[in-house]
Amino acid sequence: MKKDSVVPRTRGPRSGPALSAADSSKLQPILDRWASVPGSLLPILHDVQAAFGHVPPGVVRPIAKALNRSRAEIHGVISFYHDFRTTPPGRAVLKLCQAESCQACGSRELTAHVERALGCKLGQTSPDGAVTIEPVYCLGNCAVSPAAMLDGELHGRVTPAKADALLEQARSAR
Amino acid sequence: MTIRVCVPRDATALSLGADAVAKAIAAEGKRTGAAVQVVRTSSRGLFWLEPFVEVETKQGRIGYGPVEPGDVADLFAMGFLQGNAHRLSQGKVEAIPFLAKQERLCFARAGITDPLSLADYEAHGGLRGLQRALGMAPAAVVEEVVASGLRGRGGAGFPTGIKWRTVAAAAGTPKYVVANADEGDSGTYSDRMVMEGDPFVLLEGMAIAGYATGASYGYIYLRSEYPHAAKVLNEALATLRAAGWYGTNVRGSGFAFDAEVRIGAGAYICGEETALLESLEGKRGMIRYKPPLPAIKGLFGQPTVVNNVVSLASVPIILDKGGKYYADFGMGRSRGTLPIQLAGNVKRAGLVEKAFGVTLRQLIEDYGGGTRSGRPVRAVQVGGPLGAYFDGSLLDLPLDYEALAAKKGMVGHGGIVVFDDTVDMAEQARYAMEFCAVESCGKCTPCRIGSTRGRELIEQIIQKKNVTANHRQLLALCDVMENASLCALGGMAPWPVLSALQYFPGDFGLPAGKEPAHVV
Question: Do the Cβ atoms of A150 and A163 come closer than 8 Å?
């Protein structure tokens, strides 16, 4: 039999290191709020990401316990949805729409411009840790493509010059 | 007398600086001592004019746009509060041709009312549908919707009334109403406009659906990309509860109904109804086998109505004015009106609600005014990322479920994305497969593996490697995906690819005039 089994028998990398006491006390109110609500895993994960900035692997075990579901299920949900990230993002997150309507209005060139300006690719964080750029497939702002969203704030008709201004705003924010 | 100035709070208007404009108008009013009240309405859907400011005058509402904060002082100086002429003036809003020629049923209040004022909503015909429904037998409500001919506006086009009939007849309590607000198709924003601009109409439609089918609870599954809509819907829900339209005893009728907003997490597949239900249950958004239909065994295994936002928002007017009134619009088996969304490279992008039967050419040329870039239109994608690409020769097709299906296209959610002549259709075809690979739920092999192989084949064709063999292989792969995928994502991702091959073979380095690319 192989020494390292594919399925972790004990606390494996999927559940990550246990949460610190401080983090646990940050998680507890979220679990208290949602544990008895039907189908509440997505709201829990959204709240976790809002509180922690990402979904730390250490939350998998306590969430599984609170919902009486397996750790594999919780991990599976976290990894399925594009929104949930398991590592901290840059100080700002810029989402650039990659879908057809924006393509028709120059989003490919815009994305290339932003990648050059930040020195990183879509899905990565700039080397100075200031901005993470993420692809998004439609922000519903298709009448004024290309669209972008900076930390939840929507922008339309984003030219390279406007993107530079957004990046400047993102860099100067704390 | 205080003059009311309306500035939209729609997400698109905000993305172009509507907040700053509203602030500037209030500040300039204060500075000049003019009696101005800034009202935050929703958008009319004339997005090329946003931020679009409307002034209530004796002659009606006069529109100005697109307004930037820097224009505000000048507008005041030129007397825009009296509706005076200005270079930004668009004249009487109702007379703007783009708007005047529309038939707005679902969007009757768009841009006119304050989205969160229940009094405004009622003053403009709101809640009459629910009021009338509560006085009818639930089965009669279902039949009214059947008579309207309303078909699912999310894309599948299934008759809404028939779905309701099935849920009403299904045994089991509780039953649920789920509003599918996972509007993921690029080029579509009508659901968003309903939720941000007239949230009560959706909630009224959900309550009517609940009453008709015996459901007591509703969920709005809203995509996370729409934070503004989430905020508006939650406020609207609280308002309806406070006014007794939602709750344990709706307006003393004995009917109990409430609902909540649930936020998705960036998965396109969750717009597919069974994947959506899985997601609502807190699982991966993997599609389910059908049968059982969600109408019989849906959310948490209970009978569930799953309807698109626009479908539900069309219900109140059907109950208010009768199924026949609604069915008198449209053509063939496509009854009523469709909110069409003009997007992409189009000069006048915005919302056009018209009876079925309007042609693509009318929409793109008469309403849209051609491309924003001023170059010729080369391709049009209708119905979202799974819809076919059409070339100029097909623009006289009427928008109608059956007419588009005959050309292997679809109405979908009513989005039309326009491309000018700089588009590379081979790249668009490659993207269609890439998108399918990114968003596939992974349950069935044709979609999960086929999308990646499809992307690779198109990349090879673009690089002129084994073009003939790869082309043949791609057609065979598309055939498998179309016929063997479990849901529309894998089943229709080939449509943009095959249509691009058929109408734009040159972009792939293929000779024109060969046999049609469509296998079936």
Answer: no
pLDDT at position A67 is 97
Reported as a single tens digit per residue, the pLDDT across A53-82 is 999 999 999 999 999 999 999 999 999 999
How close B391 comes to chain A (CA, Å)? 15
Q: How confident is the model at residue A173 (pLDDT cuts 50, 70, 90)?
A: confident
In a domain, A14, yes or no: no
Q: Pairing mode, if any, of strands A148-150 and A92-97?
A: antiparallel
Q: Looking at the predicted structure, is the pLDDT value of residue B277 above 90?
A: yes
User: B431 — contact with chain A (CB < 8 Å)?
Assistant: yes
With CB atoms and an 8 Å threshold, state whether B281 touches A39.
yes
Q: Chain A contact for B266, CB < 8 A?
A: yes
**pLDDT at residue B177 is higher than 80:** yes
Interchain CB distance below 8 Å, A138 and B184 = yes
Structure-token pair, residue A140:
């519903």
Q: Measuring CA to CA, how many Å separate A23 from each of A15, A29, B20, B410? A: 15, 11, 39, 49
The dihedral built from the CA positions of residue B485, B488, B492 and B493, taken in this order, carries a sign that is: negative
Residue boundaries of the structural domains of chain B = 3-100, 118-327, 330-420, 425-508
Partner A contacted by B268 (CB < 8 A): yes
CB A142 within 8 A of CB A100: no
Q: Is B517 on the interface with A (CB under 8 A)?
A: no
Kindly determine whether residue B187 and residue A137, on different chains, have CB atoms separated by under 8 Å: no
In angstroms, what separates the C-alpha of A3 from chain B's closest C-alpha?
Answer: 30
CA atoms within 13 A on the CB side of A151: 14
Determine the Cα–Cα distance for residues B258 and A168; give it in Å rounded to an integer: 45
Domain boundary among A37, A58, A80: A80
Answer whether residue B85 shows pLDDT above 90: yes
DSSP reduced 3-state for B61: strand
CB burial of residue A24 (10 Å; 0-12, 13-18, 19+): middle
Query: For B445-483, what is each residue's pLDDT tens digit?
Result: 999 999 999 999 999 999 999 999 999 999 999 999 999
What class has domain B425-508?
Answer: mainly alpha
ipTM score over 0.85, yes or no: yes
Q: Which two tokens stand for residue B101?
A: 């020629």
Q: Pick from A106, A114, A109: which is nearest to A157 by CA?
A: A106
Q: Which domain holds residue A34?
A: 21-80
DSSP assignment string, B381-450: EESSTTSPEE-GGGTT-B--HHHHHHTT---TTSEEEEEETT--HHHHHHHHHHHHHHH--SSSHHHHTH
Q: Do B284 and A80 touch (CB under 8 A)?
A: yes
pTM: 0.95
Chain B touched by A156 (CB under 8 Å): yes
Instruction: CATH number for B330-420: choose from 3.30.70.2860, 3.10.20.600, 3.20.20.100, 1.10.3720.10.
Output: 3.10.20.600
Domain B3-100, CATH number (from 3.40.30.10, 3.30.190.20, 3.40.50.1440, 1.10.230.10)? 3.40.30.10
